[in-house]
Amino acid sequence: GLLTEYLKSNNIYDQLTLTKGVANGVMYLHSHNLVHGDIRAASILIDERGNPRLADTGLLKILDNTPLMRGRGLASVYRWMAPELFNDLKRTYASDVFAFTMTSWV
Question: Where is the signal peptide (predicted)?
């Protein structure tokens, strides 16, 4: 299911447990030198046991400071993007953490 549906129908404990699961997923990617690049509510799916799964890995990349892809479809992700991405368009661990925080805040 979708994150937004899950959050509406579960208590705060389950919501915090889910948030921790997403954080663990981001940490796993970073421990393998990967940057997700598109963390937002729509890219977090919930499996049948209530575990979060990071999806929408179209911007996933090995951290090498390659410029962020420009083009169609990015307008919908601007809300979740770290401010530095508007200047130099380089995805980093920090931009993933910013996007995770924005997603968790909502």
Answer: none
Domain 3-105 superfamily per CATH: Transferase(Phosphotransferase) domain 1 (1.10.510.10)
Report the catalytic residues. 38
Instruction: Encode pLDDT of 57-76 as tens digits.
Output: 766 666 555 444 444 445 44
Contact 54, 43 (CB under 8 A): yes
